[in-house]
Each structure stands twice: as C-alpha cells, then as structure tokens.
Amino acid sequence: MARSPDYDSTDIASYSIPSFTFTSGETIPVRVAYRSYNPSSSKTICIPTCYGGLINTTLAFNHSGGVFKDYHVVVVAMLGNGESSSPSNTPGFPKRIDYRDCIRSQYELLTAHLGIKQLDAVLGFSMAGQQSYYWACMYPDFMKNAIAICGSARTSGHNYAFLEGPKAALEHSSAYAEGKYREKAIDPAHGIRAFARAYCAWLTSQAWYREQQYQKLGHKDLQTYLKVHSETMLKGWDAEDVLILARMWQAGDIGVFGDNGDYTKALAAIKCKVLVMPSKTDQYFPPEDSAIEVEHLKHGELAVIPTIWGHTAGGGSNEEDTKWMNDRIARFLE
C-alpha cells in the first residue's frame, strides 16, 4: 500500500500479536491494522475490510445520518490486505490463509487490546460479509447481530470459477514472473491491471452496462471506464496480497463448523440475528443463494437491494442504494 501515493493512512493504528498460529500451522508475529471511531460509545460494531478494500475506503455507515453515527465503529483490515500482516510486509507469512485466521486476529484485537466485552454487530460487505458468517460461528456469544452484505456463507462453484479468470490474468502476466517479481525487481502493476480488466465486467450488471451507468462516474464512454478502472482498482497492491485473498475467498465455507462439512447445519447453529442483504443484480453472490441461506437460519432476515449496480451496490458505489441499506439496517436493529 505504501507504494501508492493515493493511500490514505488517516487515524490508522495497529495491534501486534507476538505469536499467532495460523490454521495452516505456521506461527509468526502478526500485526492487525484498524481504525476506531467514537470509542466512548457504549454500542460497538466491527466492520472488516472487503476484497480490494482498505480501512479508509470501507463504507462504515457512520456519516451524518448514518445508522452507526453514534456507535463505536471499529474497521479492521483482514490479514492479507496489505495493511494488516500480509505476504507483502511480513517475512514468513503463510502461502495460504483461512477466514478463521482473520476472525481470531480480529477477536484478539477487540478483546485484548480494545477491551471490548461484546459486539452489537459485525457488518461486512463481500469478503467481509463472509467474515460476518464466520464471526457468528466462531464467537456466538460475543455478538448480538450479523449483517452480511453481498456475501455468502459458502463460496459457490460459479463464484470460484469467476475468480479463476482474474487470477489467471495476473499469474500468467510477464510482470508476475511466475511469482519471482520481487527477486527480479519487477513491478507487478501490469499484471494487477490485467487482473482488474478481467474482473471489470463482473462488478456491476448487464443492465448497468446497457444503461451506460459508467457515465454517472464521470466516464464519457465504455473504453474510458475500462481503462480507468483497470488502472485504479487495486492500485498500489502487491500481487501476492491480491492472490492470497482471492484463494481465501475461493475456500470460504462455514461448513468447517458443521457436521461432516455441511454448511446448512452450521447456518442452523448460528445463535444471533442475521440480516442477509444481497444485491438483486450481483453476478457472483446472487440473491437466490442468499435466500437458501436464510431458510436455514434460526433468526435470519432477507433484504434484497433493488439495484442495477450489481455487487458494487453493497460497497457504497451508488448513493441511492447506500441510503436504502442504511434505512434497512436501522429497521433490523430496532
């Protein structure tokens, strides 16, 4: 992240865990980056980062009029994102990580460092939505509510296959140099741009492109949008950070907590209330999958975002959708 001149480090702090054992068995020191807003509040929410997200780009709903403006909001960078410990900044970092590693590191930050006894909610978008499910399974008595926005309890086969495309674009680029770009002193930016170009069509929806909504973002035509998006998505990211998070996303499945790997049994065992909020036009976390998940939750609610902004709606890309989510979350927490 430090390579990008656009990186915003405002009020970001970190907590060091001197000996952290990953699910894969490696034990190393790790650092968890976070930002704490309004710490004097008696109500607390944890918001992990999403794929490609950073602490200060995360939609926290704590703006004026936001549902969490009076909450203690803790935004936490998941392991691997380049702000917390990651392949790019931590010697001996594992080749693969698991959502369970992220949640355990976040739990230690909240309890051992910030002294938080209980969370009113864990909210997450995309990969962070998946983390909210893991939170509910791993620490059922620590949280009252989970809010999963454009995420899932298990990465679907279609979602897994979609990610293979952008990954291949990066891994087969000359800039990646078969993973030896660091030792060869090669800037992997060209490979990162190839990843972003392959990813681009999946972010929104067919209707979004048909209606040329990219013009609302200030782009005069499709080619301009594609070029700018490729150059700005994941700008400054390290290639191995990009890939390790994609692999963790692909492996996401709370079935690890269910009998014989059954994710529906893990869903049925979740104690807290869960608001499942997919986008109507999300191409890789579709609302049909969310509806199936809610069928197995004891205290689940389904609220489909009525939007053509696809997956990006859940991250705050469209003001109208953000207001809709804010109001729906407020009703859920009443």
User: pLDDT average, as an integer?
Assistant: 97
Largest sheet: 8 strands, mixed
Q: How much strand?
A: 5-15%
| Topology, number of strands | 8
Task: Give the number of helices.
Answer: 10
What oligomeric arrangement do these chains adopt?
single chain
Helical content stands at 25-40%
Rg calculated over all Cα atoms: 19 Å
Write the layout of secondary structure elements.
Elements: E1 13-21, E2 27-37, E3 44-48, E4 72-76, H1 99-113, E5 121-125, H2 127-138, E6 145-149, H3 157-171, H4 189-203, H5 206-210, H6 222-232, H7 239-250, H8 263-268, E7 273-277, H9 287-296, E8 300-302, H10 319-332
Parallel strand pairs: 3-4, 3-5, 5-6, 6-7, 7-8
Antiparallel strand pairs: 1-2, 2-4
Helix pairs in contact: 1-2, 3-4, 3-7, 4-6
Characterization of the model:
- There is one protein chain.
- The chain is an alpha/beta fold and 334 residues long.
- The chain is built from ten helices and eight strands.
- Strands 1-2-4-3-5-6-7-8 form an eight-stranded mixed β-sheet, sandwiched between helices.
- α9 (287-296) links the parallel β7 and β8.
- The longest helix has 15 residues, at 99-113.
Summarize the structure.
With 334 residues, the chain is of the alpha/beta class. It has helices at residues 99-113, 127-138, 157-171, 189-203, 206-210, 222-232, 239-250, 263-268, 287-296, 319-332; strands at residues 13-21, 27-37, 44-48, 72-76, 121-125, 145-149, 273-277, 300-302. Helix 1 (99-113) packs across helix 2 (127-138) and helix 3 (157-171) packs antiparallel against helix 4 (189-203).
